[in-house]
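Q: I'm writing up a methods section and want to include an example of the input and output format. Could you take the sequence below and give the corresponding predicted structure tokens, formatted cleanly so I can copy it straight into the document?
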Amino acid sequence: MDWFLRLNEPSRAKGDEEAFAAWMNRSAENRDAWTKACRTWEVMGETVPVLDRGHVRGGQTERRRPQAGNERHPGRRWSARGRIAIGIAALAACLVAVIAAPTFLTRIEADYTTATAEIRRITLADGSTVDLGAASAIAVNFSTGSRQVRLLSGEAYFDVRPDTARPFIVRTGELDVTVVGTAFDVNVTPEIETVQLAHGIVSLSKVASGDTLRMIAGDTVTLDRTSGRLSRATVEIDTIASWRDRKLFVQDVPISTVIAELQRYHPSWITMASVELGDRRITGLYDLADPDRALEALVSPYGGKVHHVSPYLRVLTLF
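A: Here is the clean output for your methods example:
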């Protein structure tokens, strides 16, 4: 998709076609991905980009004649960028149903939720407080012998009231965090789960294996949900849960992970057309109060571009 957008640009660079040919010849997977992308756009009436020096198919280069534009709507002529934008928007709309279903189920389970860009402070029955990040949800279960909170989605900062008789347990999909009285941040994305400890001591365990480790103030532990690997690092305590001040601090994480964070604060759907861009690792501080500006600051240093396709869609490409 990144190449499709790039080659349809009227002002594309002279070397773009040579670079595209090199990319196509690099692997059969690249050629297969390009073929599938072209079929997607052709179904919606879009033509494959015309290349002056030919394009690569199955490792061979062939000449192509210019094709006529989409004439299915007489009297209305869309620009190439406009047709591509409409196509992307249509594909994104198809994804909404897939994404909305699990979100709806999460909201049914939750006792407390937040909307996009909303941050909410909740005082629990024991006096502990939870700062619930944007687009997040928790379920609370307090009983005589224990205090349990499930982080169903998103991020939350817990400031726990001490009670030695009733440990406070935060459960995510893969981790259990057990404390008596302390303050810590827990964040869940599709790729990772992260716990950062502001003060006190907590015991963290993996649900699947039962492996346990002890965290001290300044520790950050990350679980890769694909590999199951736990990694530990340290951060400045002042940067923990900076999202409560509408700031997002990240340290040596992929751009795709930061996009997942920004999505909670952006009213538009954000999608990436470049896997290579998403894999770049970054450290930085971003303004959650202005998510569009944060997106630009995130990708532009790496050659990325933010396409404002509509008020409801942002597409990130590597140009």
